[in-house]
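A further point concerns the way the authors explain their paired sequence and structure data. Showing the layout once, in full, would remove most of the difficulty. For illustration, here is how one protein appears when written out as sequence plus structure tokens:
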Amino acid sequence: MKKRMVTLILALLLALSLTGCGSRDTAKDGENAGIGTQSTDDASTLPDTAQDRPVTDVPMMVMVDNTLYQSAGEVSTVEGRCGNMDGEITSQTANGTDAPTENGQSNFGTGYGYQRIDDHIEVLIDNQRVVFGPIPASGV
């Protein structure tokens, strides 16, 4: 009985350790298609949002720490990261097409976590880490 209990506990600990921080390369050929812009061509590539709004060909943008970031249209290939998010997108622009003006605001929805990675951020959208680069002040 004790042997069985110890084996069960060890198996549980092993399973929990495998679900922690890990590394994987999520970018595959064709996987980046349609990521980073909002298009009327294929609604299935758009992130789910809690608010209904018209879909347009506007780049996905988010403001973090008074810096405006725009989707680079690619999925991250960074390996060896921890799963802890640095923040969350908590508001959306009024019509979904304007550039965000407040920290934690996007033009594509709310509830998405993000991480700071070097000079860019990565937003977790539909289990993919989409890369967002800073926009120069005169870029919008």
Remarks:
- The chain has a mean pLDDT of 74.
